[in-house]
Amino acid sequence: MQQDILINWSPQETRVAIVENGAVQELHVERTLERGLVGNVYLGKVARVLPGMQSAFIDIGLERAAFLHVADVWHRQPDGEPPALVRNSQPQVPIEKQVFEGQSLMVQVIKDPIGTKGARLSTQISIAGRLLVFLPQDDHVGVSQKIPLDQRDALRARLQALVGEAGGGFILRTNGEDATDPELAEDIAYLRKTWSRIKDLSQRVPPASLLHQDLNLLQRVLRDLVGEETQAIRLDSNEQFALLQAFGREFMPAAAERLQLYKGERPIFDLYSIDEEIARALGRRVELKSGGYLIVDQTEALTTVDVNTGGFVGARNFDETIFKTNLEAAQAIARQLRLRNLGGIIIVDFIDMSRDDHRDTVLAEFRKQLARDRVKTMSGGFSQLGLVEMTRKRTRESLAHMLCEPCAACQGKGIVKTARSVAYDILREILREARQFNPREYRVVASPKVVELFLDEESQHLAGLSDFIGKPISLQSESAMGQEQYDIVLL
Q1: Which CATH class is domain 3-35+216-274?
Q2: Cβ atoms within 10 A of the Cβ of 433, count?
Q3: Beta strand 127-128 pairing with 344-349
Q4: What is the value of pTM for the model shown?
């Protein structure tokens, strides 16, 4: 498999496309204004200590002072215990005995500023890598609790051997469960080098300075997305290319060697029609080459994928037609999950197959395609209802949630009332108003389509209601109104 990573950079937005064998498999988007502060490390200065609130205000160079509660002040734990902030496990030392005004303090943002509230801080520093989380103030080596219990001891022993005598606390993340020793060693080296830079910088800069910013999308490409199959990483910005090259040479030299500056006249995303792929990835319907199609519906609780034969009639018999469609759909669904970054519970409704060997082949192909996903997935077999249930780990917002918002006309329902339904709602509302008020005239302000219906097919019903209530009813077309919107003005 050949993989290319294409990066389109602009001051307001960074877009990354992963292309495998000529087809877009993943899309990543980061917007400059939407980047938070969580994970950033600062050299703060204690501006004020509030014993009554057991808190302190810390100046970290932002518009508003940040907030440090006594429960977020780190303490070293007894040997053998996992790292933790002192909360309810033992009596807390009052904050006024731990910090004082004017003190310089290394802190990390754990919650972004909201409204008038400043950022929330912690003095426990943690640095996230691709596979590990580094806790430089501790010596504990642990494994994520989401990893099955029977695997944790072996993984902990492997990690402890790699950490060696150099110290520092490490926690293996869930996506590091299947990592090799060289991959873990590379992550350990990166995290230690990052912490060394933070410590060195803290000795040279004044208080209220930024020491470490969580990696941006460009840097995460080198850390998280580059693999052995990656042929090239093409970036279309001279300035960002130089910055990324410098970062890569220091932290990930193997990945940095594959960086290429794109100088073509056409926009880089035009090479593989990626903007068209983005537009298709936001739609419900996905066409298959055979003539079949998928319907993808994303809800709060789960995502459903329905497979249909459509116009595919090319096979020798009906069973073969269904089998070929499902086989192609298995490949397309796995790709759509990555492309749209769909997570959580996913229900796939393949077309019913009567032969067990066909079902087994489709399921095997589906699992084979899912295995290529860098995000952890788990899938079951066919249920009694012929559905395949699976889960995919949520790592970030789906593409639709990131790029779209609910429709102003339908409020996210995906449907709106017909013009005739709205017209009948208006007639009922006028009748209700007539029982309570006695205006000179009723004026209906509605969308052009509803007004046109009243002037044509529903004119008799409107005239009948006017005669019944004994008041004239006038119409006013408002093009800015959605089909379900209307107003009844009493004149």
Answers
A1: alpha beta
A2: 16
A3: unpaired
A4: 0.73
